[in-house]
Structures are given as structure tokens and as C-alpha cells.
Amino acid sequence: MLQIENIKMKNPVVLAPMAGVCNPAFRLIAKEFGSGLVCAEMISDKAILHKNEKSLRMLYVDEREKPLSLQIFGGDKDSLLGAAQVVDEQTNADIIDINMGCPVPKVTKCDAGARWLLDPDKIYEMVAVVARNVQKPVTVKMRTGWDDDHVYVLENAQAVEAAGGKAVSVHGRTRYQMYEGLADWDLLRQVKETVNIPVIGNGDVNTPQDAKRMLDTTGVDGVMIGRAALGNPWMLYRTVKYLEDGTLPDEPTPKEKIDVCMLHMDRLIDLKGEKVAVQEMRKHASWYLKGLRGSGKVRGEINQLERRDDVANTMYRFVEGLNEEAAVGS
Ligand SMILES: Cc1cc2nc3c(=O)[nH]c(=O)nc-3n(C[C@H](O)[C@H](O)[C@H](O)COP(=O)(O)O)c2cc1C
User: Fold this and answer.
1) FRET partner for 122 with CA separation of 20 to 30 A, picked from 16, 29, 236, 326?
2) How far, in Å, from the CA of 71 to the mean position of ligand 1?
3) What is the mean pLDDT of residues 90-94?
4) Is-above-0.90 flag for pTM?
């Protein structure tokens, strides 16, 4: 069972941190669909310390989402520690996660994110100073390396453990790969054999069967799911069930998809107001609609809408159209 210090997850299924996605609206849905642990989107350490209003709002955690891991990123010891202390003292997150995987140049240029993967000594130093000075468990999410010539995941995971980190999540790709190519699960297995803290495996888990295969072949303690859950929290629920008893619940009907999409939108409206939420929901709506016949046109329509009720009417009309087609076809 996945356990990080004294925090016991009810199953090993973890929602990956995803910027622009993992806010309380989606995280709560992921939790309701069974995830053992949900991760929040990354927040800049400096933005927290500068009291940037948007970043401070990102520290909000609903009781119902717990256990929850809140992720910060940064490149400089003082600001990383300062931000970690804010998360430690002023939020009800359970875990403080440090991002060591973000590949985007804007982040790596500031010596943050995946940049650390080149320097196990820096990892040790940074994690140690944070872990020593906060109460909540500190964990790290990393990639396997910077590029094929710099794959230091074993040394880096050992550095996390030696520094007092309580778990490590590993995305089986290098920074150079971004999101392309295959995730290297054998390296996940090697990390698990190398350290004694819990290891959460990540990358290319697209089906519940993939999740089981990752757990079985690598021995990792948890399985982290990112893109496969976008517009598809059923992926989390189906994985939990499959791991529990080998059964695969049915895929959702189009109506069920729209119902959850609207629940997601209504929660986002509560958080951010109608204008921002409707705009942010455009990408989510397109993920919820993915795979439904003829959804391209309705996605285009939704991108023009600005009111919640108009989005709801458009989506439900689309589903009624699908049902009518099915009735004619049968
Ligand atoms: C839209 C998006 C945003 C992401 N944001 C973050 C982030 O804030 N922090 C982080 O550690 N990883 C982030 N990631 C990486 C994911 O957590 C995960 O490692 C990656 O998507 C691989 O897992 P998957 O194959 O299950 O998608 C992001 C990925 C995506 C697709």
C-alpha cells in the first residue's frame, strides 16, 4: 500500500500534478473518482513569497481533497525554503512536493525544474534544507535525466532519500524527450531497487491494464496518471477497480461525460467566476468530448461561447443528437 510517512493512501492511484489542470475543481473530481492521492499544479516559490494573488489562491485545499500533495518549484535555496514554509504553516496540504521535472526553458533557465537533474549534490542540499525546516513530509517529482547522456536518476533518487525526502515520483522520460518517445519503465524498476523510500512510477499509463503492468513489472509503490485522466476521470476510477478486483467498469456514456464536465465547470465557476471558468473549460470540454462522433464541430462552437448556460445547452443538445442517431440506427 502506498504510504508516505504517516499518510496512508487508500489505493496506489495518484493523479499527476498538471499545470492549468489540477486546481481544486478537477482534483476533487479525481478524488471522488477514487484516486488515493491527488497532486496540485506547480506553484512558483518566488510568486508565493511575493504574495502574487493568483499563486496564493493556488494554495487553497478543500478538506475533501485530502490526502493532497502541493507542488512548488524554484532554483534558489532561500526562496524554495521560504515558499515551503508558507505551504507548511499556512495550508492544509499533506505533502510538500518539489518539482524537478519541468522541462520548459522559462523554468530551467532559472535553475529550477528539470535543471536540477544534472546535479545530485544540489538536489541533496536543496531537499535537506527544506526537509529539516518543515513539519510536513517533503517529496520530489523528477524525470529520469536531462538527456540520454545525463541519466542520473539513481543518484538523484538516492540524494532525495539521503536528504530526508519521504518519497520520489519518477516520470520515465528525460527532459530532452519532453513528452515524446516511450517512458523507460526499467529505470523505474531500478529506482525502486535502489532506494528505501516509496517510489511512484509515471509515464505512459494510458489504461488500467498499463497501471497494473507498471506496478507488477517495476515494483513501484504507486502509479501516477496524467494525460490519460484529462477529461476522463473514469480512467482513475476504472484503474482503482481493476487493481482492486480485476474488474473493468463500463466506459461512461456520452451523457455521463457531459454531466461530469458540467460539474467540473460549475466548480471552476465557484473558484474563478464565470468568465475565466468558461474560457478555461474550453480545453477540458474538448477533452471530455474526445472520441464522441462528430464532436469536432461542437468543440468549435464551445470555443466561441462565454456563458455557462450556453455551453451546457450546446453540450446537451449534442448528446441528444447522438442519442437520436443511435435510435434511428437501431
Ligand atoms: C498539461 C500538463 C501539465 C503538467 N504540469 C506539471 C506540473 O505542474 N508539475 C509536474 O511535476 N509535472 C507536470 N506535468 C507532467 C505530468 O505530471 C506527468 O509527469 C507527465 O504528463 C507524464 O505522465 P502521463 O504519461 O501519465 O501524462 C504536466 C503534464 C501535462 C500534460
Assistant:
1) 16
2) 12
3) 97
4) yes
